[in-house]
Here is the input.
Amino acid sequence: MNQNDLLNITSATYADARQEMEQLLEARAPNYSLPQPLYNDPQMFRVDMEEVFQKEWLFVGMSSEVPSKGDYITLEIGQNPVLIVRDAEGNINAFHNTCRHRGSRICTKERGKAANLVCPYHTWTYDLKGNLLFAGSDMGESFDMKQNGLKKALCKTAGGFIFISLAAQAPQGDFDEFLATLDEYMEPYDVENTKLAVESNMYEKANWKLVIENNRECYHCAANHPELLNSLLEWDDTNDPRAPQDFVDHYNTQAAEWDAEGIPHEHRSFGPGKRNRIVRMPLKKGTQAMTMDGSEGSKKLLGRIKNPQLGSMRILHLPNSWNHMQSDHFVVFRVLPISAQESLVTTKWFVHKDAVEGVDYDVKKLRHVWDATNDQDRVLGEENQRGINSIGYQPGPYSETYEFAVINFLEWYSDTVRKNLQHR
Ligand code: 3BY
Ligand code: FES
Ligand code: FE
Here is the structure.
């Protein structure tokens, strides 16, 4: 909890907070930004954590980050440390990263490789499937090793994307249909044969919903993102109410090539508020990747891709990820809430696993555009938060032509929180 949160703490009990959340969502005007407490109140943040981040499917990372047996990554979902590890059979498993002895965090690094998972405190040792192998010298006769394995989190992988859920039972919905589409649309990229080139972790002093809202519109792009607009065309897809004819023509020309090559591109979306969405859109004419001059980020095209002009396949997964898949590299984004007014935005750039740094790609060139864009968005998010904290703030109207995807996000958020509160 940060300083702001301590100042904001109210005496309301948590049951009152849940009730307040219901009332605020019930009363909200759908095409307006949210009431202030939903962006800055620690109690409302706790409801977000319990009803969204501890229940829904979350994007955590890519399968090529854990390419072989024993490779792991760790992350924190609020106060919940989680461990993602590949086992001997090649399956990717997710566990609560908390020891069954006295609860210590087991894996303490952000990524690594381990033959077994050994707790640093008293060396209780688990295999890569979470079974307890060793528990010290004498735990007494009644101690049952089988009852003391690591606690599992739900974990699903498709198209190289790893998702987890901390819920006891898988969240309802059409998530599996989205995963099947993700498998189909990601096939050309062969994620298993990619590697992480570089990663950035950016702390942003803004509520997680402000980070996502900012990403869901390009109304702010012209005034803020000169580097990104070298290559990005700002329209959401060809259904965007603002899409001009020359953009639609450009798309149609590219789409004909993609069809001939068996490269999926058509818009698919799933769930309320288009919670999961995939579409391929062309980049600006004369560019092929999100670099400063629009030239390639890496000389080795990914997977079975032959045509460098694949635009960017955009993948959205609410509540915590957006992504840009290009012919030669892809960039994945993950948002994790830290507190009511702070979020962690992790960005990872992937290239072909055989691409050689300094020969096929230059990290500085690869990351330049999104480093600049992320930092610009961070400032926008932080200023948004500071203004929202004012006693002068009142919810303001979204533009239905420029900000329809923000409206969609909040529709999903509101429906999800209300549904989950009712099912408690
Ligand atoms: O992620 C994108 O595609 C961009 C960045 C800014 C707005 N958003 C639509
Ligand atoms: Fe893990 Fe003691 S807390 S071995
Ligand atoms: Fe932006």
About this structure: Residues 65-165 form a domain with the Rieske Iron-sulfur Protein fold (CATH 2.102.10.10). The first helix runs from residue 3 to 8. The chain has two domains: 1-56+174-423, 65-165.
